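User: Fold this; tokens only.

Assistant: Input:
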Amino acid sequence: MKFLTIIFTLSSTLIAGEFDGTWKTNCASEGATNLRSTVIVQAAQGALEQMQYKDNQCITPTVLVQASGAIEFPALDAQTRFDLTYAAFTVTIKDVAAVKVASLVEYCGVSNWQLDIPMDVAGKTCSEQLSFPRIGDKHHNIIALNEKGQLLLGRLTVELDGTSPELRPTQLDTQYPFIKQ
């Protein structure tokens, strides 16, 4: 899951004001995965939610991923850098069949998944392709508004994964813009 749900505190009222509002991506398909993300920023608070869906119209939800933490802005420029210190990660399964499978295979090391109940996954390895950061780990990224007024985050890659300031993305992800609602 490339997108994560992030609840964060913005440290600059200038930045918070620039990004104020509710922002959503269109339904996007990555292989067999269908995703929609939402960013909500009001005053100095914000949230980014990623929901996975069964269908390519993003109607029937299956999994919600959420992370939380405090954000700092070390520089204000065209591609504003931000550092997120993680405080929590949860996964909420929204589909009965997926709950049964997740419990059976002990997804993220959890054997008692329940429908619509968030489970703490901070620091857990959930598959060969997915491990969640530990509480206190930092994520380094960029954020900006494009010429259409859409919110863009940094494009994460294997080489630039945001795990250190040196590995901060350098390009914005224009494939998945957040549109102000």
